[in-house]
Amino acid sequence: MAEARTPAQIEADIARRRQELAVTLDEIGVRLHPRTIIGDAKAAAAAAVDRTAGRAYVTAHRVLSDVRAQLVSEDGAPRLERIVPVAMVGVAVVGLLAVSARRRRG
Fold first, then answer.
1. Residue 45 near residue 39 (C-beta atoms within 8 A)
2. Rounded-to-integer distance, Cα 34 and Cα 40, Å
3. What is the pTM (predicted TM-score) of this model?
4. What is the pLDDT of residues 39-72, one digit of tens each?
């Protein structure tokens, strides 16, 4: 059978449960406080920006490595047969932009 509890044991149990409830209510109050909510949102946004920036860095590094591999041989010498056409296209684009800007002004 169940052991009979004394009034002192019952009072101690009630006091312990009150304390647990007070701690739980304090935790809820902290979690629902506007500053906590704003801080959590800021932390989540910062983490998302960090992840996005990290992915962008990795992607940019990969693209630059691919471009470098196309324009430089394995021994480090420039591949002129690939660099010259790219440079010519770059000069042509800059020239077209300059001509276009002059036409707009005048």
1. no
2. 10
3. 0.48
4. 999 999 999 999 999 999 999 999 999 988 999 9
User: What is the reported pLDDT for 3?
Assistant: 82
Residue 80 has pLDDT above 80, yes or no: yes
- Taking alpha carbons only, the member of 87, 52, 59, 55 closest to residue 71 is 87
Q: How far is CA 49 from CA 2, 21, 38, 61, 62, in A?
A: 59, 38, 16, 18, 20
Tokens of 10: 């019952």
Q: How far apart are CA 50 and CA 56, in angstroms?
A: 10
Terminal CA-CA length for the chain: 104
CB 19 within 8 A of CB 11: no
User: What does DSSP assign to residue 76?
Assistant: S
